[in-house]
Design a protein that fits this description.
Distance between the termini: 14 Å
Strand content: over 45%
Largest sheet: 4 strands, antiparallel
Number of helices: 0
Shape: elongated
Number of domains: 1
Radius of gyration: 19 Å
Structural class: mainly beta
Order of helices and strands: EEEEEEEE
Strand order of the largest sheet: 2-1-5-6
Number of strands: 8
């Protein structure tokens, strides 16, 4: 098990896991490498980085670039007949873990 930071968020990962993160640049099939490994736990051994574990990295493959669900919001002023509805969809990237490389812990 590795804990890594990618796109500003932390994820607990195993091999072949699929995660959705905020947009990471790249085409489907391209590889993305994260060297920001915060924690590594295998068997009874646990290595904690300060802040990151040197030499450890996680290699991802981009599965697809897509949009998340629509989020709607509204502004309303009750006496002035003011109403505005707005919305957005986050850009998401689906990543699959290809390999977990250990470093010095």
């Amino acid at each position: 098990m590795f804990v890594t930071e990618i796109a500003g968020k932390q994820f607990i990962l195993e091999k072949d896991d699929i995660i959705a993160v905020f947009r990471v640049k790249g085409e489907p099939g391209a590889e993305v490498v994260s060297e920001r490994v915060l924690l590594k736990a295998e068997g009874g051994e646990v290595a904690v980085g300060r802040p990151y574990i040197e030499g450890a990295k996680v290699v991802f493959s981009i599965i697809k670039q897509t949009l998340g669900p629509k989020v709607r919001g509204m502004k309303f002023h009750r006496l002035s007949n003011y109403k505005r509805i707005f919305g957005h969809r986050d850009r998401l990237t689906y990543l699959k873990v290809i390999s977990l490389t250990e470093g010095q812990g």
